[in-house]
Amino acid sequence: MERGGGLQSLSCTSASFCATFDWSGRLFVFDGGHWYEALTNLVRGLQEPTDISCGARDFCLIANGDVVIFNGKSVRSVVVDKTASIDSISCVSRAFCGVVAGADAFIYDQGK
Hints:
This protein is 0% helix and 55% strand. It is mainly β. It has one domain: Neuraminidase (6 Propeller), CATH 2.120.10. The strands form three sheets. A four-stranded antiparallel β-sheet has the order 1-2-3-4, with no helix packed on it. A four-stranded antiparallel β-sheet has the order 5-6-7-8, with no helix packed on it. A hairpin with a 2-residue loop joins strand 5 (51-56) and strand 6 (59-64). It is globular and about 40 Å long.
């Protein structure tokens, strides 16, 4: 991982998995021994990512105005609330996450 890359948020599920991103929207993953860049861009539209929370090695939610799911290889967008700009996320597992958007809180429950 490059030094001085402006890392913003970090989430670890164990001593062998962590994920973070930099100001440019590049995603980095720790595999227990080394950091590597996941070849995906987290910037959607003009929104840069603001927070990440991983509930499992193959399940991270990333706030970038909307919500993006990282499955360990690729990302896909998920609509949590069309009127809200997502600020913060916290996942305890792949089945349950809390999402904050301004003064509102939402639950992401098994993708429902």
